[in-house]
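I have been asked to look over a protein record a colleague put together. Thanks in advance; the entry in question is below.
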Amino acid sequence: MPELLFLLLPVAAAYGWFMGRNSLKTKELKGRADIARNLSSGLNFLLTDQEDKAIEQLLELLDVEAATIDTYLALANLFRRKGDWDKAIKIHEKLHQLKLPKVKAQQIQFELAKDYYAAGLFDRAEKLLLPLTENEQLREGALKQLFSIFLSTHEMHKAVALSPAVAQTQSRSLRIALANMQVQQLEQQPDIANLSQLAEDYPQAIRPRFALAKLALARQDTATAQGAIVSILKQKPQWSADLLPLLNQCQLDPEQWQQLLTQLADKHHNISAHLLLTDWLAEHQSVSAAEQYLLQKLQQQPNIRLFQKLLQLRQQQSAMAGEVLESVAGLVNAYLDSKALYSCRSCGFKTRQPYWLCPSCQQWESVEPIA
């Protein structure tokens, strides 16, 4: 009898192992069935436009199957794009409560911050975004979102305080945004020294130099104004229409003025330079020379503003011709008065007045003069 019991021990152990394994399989299959059932119920709620119930049903799966997090992130982003911020927040907040690897947790934190921003909960968004400026992968995106918040709340000083973080990125747009915000801070008490420092620190941005030139002209510092304007023209010749009239106030000698205009006209085919060069020719040579210059440029580069200038010259030469051309000039002037003068290179927004910040896409210094 003892020998029989001894022989049955391996059989009992094998039976126990087999039953235990079947029990684990049964639990695993039951768990999978529960997941499938919850997923199916959630999808059915979505299909029947019962989105709130669908979200509750699907969120229950998070406690069971954390491997589907990317699916939930995609679903939350879909809700945010549709404007259903409450639903996006609900999903991201649930995900944010899970114990996840640091990289995934910070990604979810960033997405939740974007939800809060879209919903107008700026304080909550700011609280989540500030720690992310220490993350190399998320730093640039977090800073851009923070700058959008500070722009909405008119807290430019908070953006300025993040200058060290901006310096750690390679982002040109962040530097331009920071330069513009600092110029706006100085508008109440403009100072040539501070604007000069901003122009030096942020060569990507043109606004510090533009503000510096206008302030220097107001204070009769023509040398500083001239240096700032010429610097912008070399970088952004398309701004000639706005800058050349300011440069003309810097009391350049006629030959220097003519050389600068010729360079802009020949190298960049700049319409404003052509027009001012026409005036220079009419003043220092003859109206006939100016007219010949315009006719030549019109043949090479047909342009309504050049044609308008030609009409003005012809009207000045003859009273009889002036009467005939007056109606034509009126039509041309009416057309130019309705034409957009500036366009955003980022979103295509068009306007007749300049904006440092595009009203449409909220990009700094993207609205530029139309050639």
Remarks:
- The domain at 252-339 is CATH 1.25.40 (Serine Threonine Protein Phosphatase 5, Tetratricopeptide repeat).
- The first strand starts at residue 342 and ends at 344.
- Confidence is low (pLDDT under 50) at residues 1-15, 24-31.
- Residues 144 and 258 are 43 Å apart (CA to CA).
